[in-house]
């Protein structure tokens, strides 16, 4: 069994989730409230290490009323244990699981950072030889009681997750902005598919305007 996975993000009309310099404030105020209500409904929230390094996110429910219990478990997909020692996702606001690849396990366990994180209560999960195996991670998280997981990027992890058939629903905020730039991160990057016939197919299930933003919900067809 796997968690039900909702991919949530905000992009500009030209499909960028950050500029080439990493600036990523895209959602309007009301959209951020919507996102935090969704965080509150989820058992876990997962990002890739690229997002942790770029944004140092909190990944807690902090824009709407919430109790400490409302904070989802934070999951970071980080094969080589690059999570910075002072990353906010390792604070005591919520539980944190760092998923790493087996090849780096011995080195990781021997590091001072590992001891520091253990003292903070951070848990570790190992899967995949050189890169985290996302299917076994999802299966482990489900065993740990995670029924509903919110995936919050970034582009590389989004593509791996959708390619592996692990995303059930997509909720995207389309902001009326264009930033361009072939080096700006798009909603899905990764290695991409070669042929249009390989594209993951979606069904639009909801759409509405929230101030200037457009909110679209899609079911992923499997
Ligand atoms: N506007 C929005 O809604 C959002 C925007 N963003 C933006 O996205 C950008 C970050 O995206 P990006 O750089 O692509 O980083 P990601 O957050 O997607 O992290 C990618 C990294 O995850 C690690 N990883 C481990 N296992 C896997 C796997 N099986 N598949 C894929 N990745 C894996 C890899 O590093 P390793 O091999 O070391 O483990 C990889 O480089 C930031 O600029 C951020 O601001 C992010 C979220 C939301
Ligand atoms: N929904 C949404 N809209 C945006 O405009 C965004 N930039 C993001 N980014 C995601 O939220 C994380 C920051 O979370 P905290 O406020 O620090 O808890 C960021 O890392 C992205 O995952 N999302």
Automatic annotation (TrEMBL):
GO biological process: riboflavin biosynthetic process
Location of the Bacterial bifunctional deaminase-reductase C-terminal domain: 3-216
GO molecular function, one term: NADP binding
Top-level taxonomic group: Archaea
Record keywords, A-Z: NADP, Oxidoreductase, Riboflavin biosynthesis
Record lineage: Archaea, Methanobacteriati, Methanobacteriota, Methanomada group, Methanobacteria
Originating organism: Methanobrevibacter gottschalkii DSM 11977
Record Gene3D superfamilies: Dihydrofolate Reductase, subunit A
InterPro entries registered for this protein in UniProt: DHFR-like_dom_sf, Rib_reduct_arc, RibD_C, RibDG_C, Riboflavin_Biosynth_HTPR
Assembly and interaction partners: Homodimer.
Pfam name, any one: RibD_C
Catalyzed chemical reaction(s): 2,5-diamino-6-(1-D-ribitylamino)pyrimidin-4(3H)-one 5'-phosphate + NADP(+) = 2,5-diamino-6-(1-D-ribosylamino)pyrimidin-4(3H)-one 5'-phosphate + NADPH + H(+); 2,5-diamino-6-(1-D-ribitylamino)pyrimidin-4(3H)-one 5'-phosphate + NAD(+) = 2,5-diamino-6-(1-D-ribosylamino)pyrimidin-4(3H)-one 5'-phosphate + NADH + H(+)
Protein name, as recorded: 2,5-diamino-6-(ribosylamino)-4(3H)-pyrimidinone 5'-phosphate reductase
Pathway: Cofactor biosynthesis; riboflavin biosynthesis
């Amino acid at each position: 069994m796997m968690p039900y996975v909702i991919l949530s993000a905000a992009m500009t009309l030209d499909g960028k989730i950050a500029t080439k310099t990493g600036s990523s404030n895209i959602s309007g105020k009301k959209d951020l409230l919507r996102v935090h209500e969704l965080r509150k409904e989820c058992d876990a929230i997962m990002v890739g290490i690229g997002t942790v390094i770029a944004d140092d996110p909190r990944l807690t429910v902090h824009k709407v009323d919430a109790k400490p219990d409302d904070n989802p478990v934070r999951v970071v997909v980080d094969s080589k244990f690059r999570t910075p020692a002072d990353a906010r996702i390792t604070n005591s606001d919520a539980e944190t699981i760092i998923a790493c690849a087996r090849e780096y396990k011995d080195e990781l366990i021997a590091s001072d950072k590992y001891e520091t994180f253990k003292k903070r209560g951070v848990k570790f999960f190992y899967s995949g030889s050189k890169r985290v195996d996302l299917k076994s991670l999802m299966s482990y998280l489900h065993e740990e009681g995670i029924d509903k997981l919110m995936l919050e990027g970034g582009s590389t992890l989004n593509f791996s997750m959708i390619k592996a058939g692990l995303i059930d629903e997509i909720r995207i905020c389309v902001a009326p902005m264009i930033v361009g730039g072939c080096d700006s991160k798009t909603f899905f990057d990764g290695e991409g598919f070669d042929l249009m016939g390989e594209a993951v197919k979606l069904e639009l299930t909801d759409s509405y305007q929230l101030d200037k933003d457009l909110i679209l919900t899609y079911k992923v067809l499997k």
